[in-house]
Write a structure and sequence with these properties.
The structure holds two protein chains of two kinds. Chain A folds into two domains: 2-77, Beta-grasp domain (Ubiquitin-like (UB roll)); 84-155, Orthogonal Bundle (DNA polymerase, domain 1), CATH 1.10.150. Helices cover 31% and strands 15% of the residues of chain A. Chain A contains five helices and five strands; from the N terminus they run ββαβββαααα. The longest helix of chain A is centred in the last third of the chain and has 15 residues, at 141-155. Chain B has three domains: 3-57; 66-179, Uridine Diphospho-n-acetylenolpyruvylglucosamine Reductase, domain 3 (2-Layer Sandwich); 185-273, CO dehydrogenase flavoprotein, C-terminal domain (Enolase-like, domain 1, 2-Layer Sandwich), CATH 3.30.390. Chain B has helices spanning 16-28, 42-47, 84-89, 91-96, 98-105, 110-113, 118-124, 131-137, 223-230, 236-246, 257-273; strands at residues 10-11, 33-36, 55-58, 68-71, 75-79, 141-145, 150-154, 159-161, 164-165, 172-179, 185-190, 201-206, 209-213, 220-221. The chains are: A alpha+beta, B alpha+beta.
Chain lengths: 156, 282
């Protein structure tokens, strides 16, 4: 079926099977491979994107349900978006500053889930908001520190 | 792309009436449609390479089913597409059935809570669903609608066996109605870790009504325990003995029957021991 997507501000029209995962549509049809597949069953959050502003596991979303929706992926958050991402987003910069990534497979999903947090999120709320994103390297503390610093800056 | 997704047919109604018509036609043709809400359970099986039989009816566009309404002091009415996030954000749920908020926060992570629905969890029939025991302990009723009639079934009578329900092939869950009974409320989920765990044991209690998950082929009410508590019984040892007769846990990948029996007994002991002390124990 033909579906229309607004991805990182760009309009796209793709012809895909309705049950094709949004994850696969992003990676295979739109060549947006920043979104990763981890577990493929909604446990790890590596494939997290924002659909109409809400964090979802793109491995569990049929493309037909994203028809007409606004989708944000990791490629779109640096200034300029898309392939011209020259300047990192402040959240990405905070991840670098705090060493919040090691192997990096969870990072795109962590970034997207963190962007869905309320600006006034407490440490507990950051933990709850990122509970659906697994990281096997960092032990999470550096990620929480990075997100907290980013949110502090957003509030300033 | 996962191969299983390629050939699957999906019907996508815009209005409930159209959806019910599609369900009826498909049922009459002997090719029933599988209703799909947020897809969080369905896509796990698809991604695992198990192509589910049948065709799908995508309910996601039926916006009117997304509401949660409060009625009077104790009434709640959840639309068939109300998500766990909707429950967490609903003041009416916080006030009337706070243990549903607790349970909703423990259903996967935010990503799952944003897409998973109460009705989807009920119909999927997993014995390990976290939200369903809460609704069952609160005497929820499942409202099933077909093209020409509507019926309301107690959730406690909804399951006929492992992942089998009373829903007919032409019916959709349009609402879940709850008139929250009086009494203290409690929700406990015991899993391997605090977040992102499928439960080993779930207990939800509203007064003397007690429901369990992961300890039987279906989510269930503990009838013997309830009868004892309703009659005023408060002896902890007797309550533990009776609930031991109610549950029928098994060994599986997540836990053992023995461990589950022990945890059930401990949770019940804790609950019954404090039942008349705290008016709204959490």
């Amino acid at each position: 079926m033909k579906i229309k997507l607004h991805v990182n501000g760009d309009k796209h029209s793709v012809d895909v099977p309705p049950m094709k995962r949004l994850l696969d549509t992003l990676r295979e049809e739109l060549a947006l491979t920043g979104t990763k597949e981890g577990c493929g069953e909604g446990e790890c959050g590596a494939c997290t994107v924002l659909v109409d502003g809400a964090a979802v596991n793109s491995c569990l979303v049929p493309s037909c349900q994203a028809d007409g929706c606004d989708v944000q992926t990791v490629e779109g958050i640096a200034r300029g978006g898309g392939k011209q991402a020259a300047r990192l987003h402040r959240l990405q910069r905070a991840f670098l500053d705090h060493g919040a990534a090691q192997c990096g497979i969870c990072t795109p999903g962590m970034l997207m889930a963190a962007l869905a947090l309320p600006k006034r999120a407490t440490l507990d709320e950051i933990r709850a908001g990122l509970a659906g994103n697994l990281c096997r390297c960092t032990g999470y503390m550096k990620i929480y520190d990075a997100v907290a610093q980013f949110l502090d800056g957003e509030r300033a | 792309m996962i191969a299983a997704a390629a050939g699957i047919e999906v019907l996508r109604p815009r209005h409930l009436k159209d959806a019910l018509m599609m369900m009826r036609v498909a049922a009459d043709e002997g090719r029933p449609l599988v209703p799909m809400a947020g897809g969080t359970d369905l896509f796990v099986t698809l991604n695992a390479g198990q192509k589910p039989a049948g065709r799908y009816l995508d309910l996601w566009r039926l916006e009117k089913l997304r509401s949660i309404e409060s009625q009077g002091k104790r009434g709640l009415s959840f639309g068939g597409l109300a998500t766990y996030t909707d429950c967490i954000e609903s003041k009416g749920v916080h006030k009337r059935l706070p243990i549903l908020v607790d349970a909703s926060r423990q259903v996967g992570g935010v990503q799952i809570q944003n897409r998973g629905t109460l009705a989807g969890n009920i119909e999927n029939g997993s014995p390990a669903a976290d939200g369903v025991p809460v609704l069952m302990a609160a005497d929820a009723r499942v409202v099933l609608r077909s093209l020409d009639d509507e019926r309301s079934v107690p959730l406690a009578e909804y399951y006929t066996g492992y992942r089998k329900t009373v829903r007919r092939a032409d019916e959709l869950i349009v609402r879940i109605d709850v008139d929250v009974p009086e009494g203290a409320q409690r929700f406990d989920k015991v899993g391997t870790r605090a977040a992102q765990a499928i439960s080993k044991v779930v207990m939800a209690a509203v007064g003397h009504r007690v429901a369990f998950g992961s300890v039987a082929p279906v989510i269930m009410r503990a009838h013997k325990l309830e009868a004892y508590l309703a009659a005023g019984g408060r002896d902890v040892a007797e309550a533990k003995r009776l609930v031991g007769e109610d549950v029928t846990p098994i060994d599986d990948v997540r836990s053992t029957a023995e461990y589950r029996r022990r945890v059930v007994a401990n949770l019940v002991a804790d609950w019954v021991g404090g039942l008349d002390k705290a008016p709204r124990s959490r």
